[in-house]
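re: ur question from earlier - yeah i can do the single chain one, its not a big deal. heres the input i used so u can compare w yours
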Amino acid sequence: MNEYFVAGGIYKNLKGEERFDLVCPGPEEPPYVLLRGVMAYFGVIWQNAHLYRLEDDYSLTLVASSPEALQWGVKAPERVTPDAALREQLQKVIGHYGPELCCNC
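and the output i got, formated as tokens:
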């Protein structure tokens, strides 16, 4: 698999429940996926999320945590195994844009 990156973290919803989620351009839209797009992350969304590398097995490994996001309470686990729904979203984005993907935004 190419070097794909995503931005995310553990966020607290309005009910006070915590869950890992990825940054998306809007509700019901697929997450941002960057190919060798580390600079895009730092230019756009680093204040609100942490940067993760997408591994071949679709697990996520922390590459860079954001001090600003940590101050807002967004936790940054070192390794994340996405649930089935999130894994399916990632597969769709990567499958749709293919190896030429630079960013789905």
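The first strand starts at residue 4 and ends at 12. not sure if urs matches, ping me
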